[in-house]
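Per-residue structure
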Amino acid sequence: MTDVIRTADLVDTNDEDVRFCEMQWKSFGRRDGFHGEVVTIRTFEDNRLLRETLGGDGSGKVLVVDGGGSLRCALVGDQIAALAQSNGWKGLLINGAIRDSADIAGMDFCVMALGQAPKKSGKTGHGARGIPVRFGNVEFRTGDYLYADADGVLVADRPVHAG
């Protein structure tokens, strides 16, 4: 995609302004990556708060979900990814698993996660939104700016790209 800002280029020009998330990600969807203003969620094996959040206007935003790294069940499936896409979210970063990966692969969207799991998550609403979350040796805060592509994930206090 032409609108993907390459993280390697950002590091070359803004190394002191970006933080590198030291984790390996799998990318799902037809988009090569995404960037936007961060909204955070912390939850564990429960996706009700994700669905509620992604049901709102996501113009220019990315959802960063700290799912505790669990691969026992999926926090995002094709329905939640489609909801995010239809509400203008730029992408999803999931410290956990997704499901329906074949369906998400056909979407003009990008979800980055640790892996896949066929099992559904809980629906109790457990978790918190808008709080700092930490994984991959990086703290993500609502209002930060995130860049993600095949090379990795960068976070900055503000947008650091030109244009």
Remarks:
- The helical segments are 7-14, 48-54, 78-86, 101-105.
- The CA atoms of residues 29 and 107 lie 5 Å apart.
- The chain has one domain: 24-150.
- Residues 78-86 form the longest helix (9 residues).
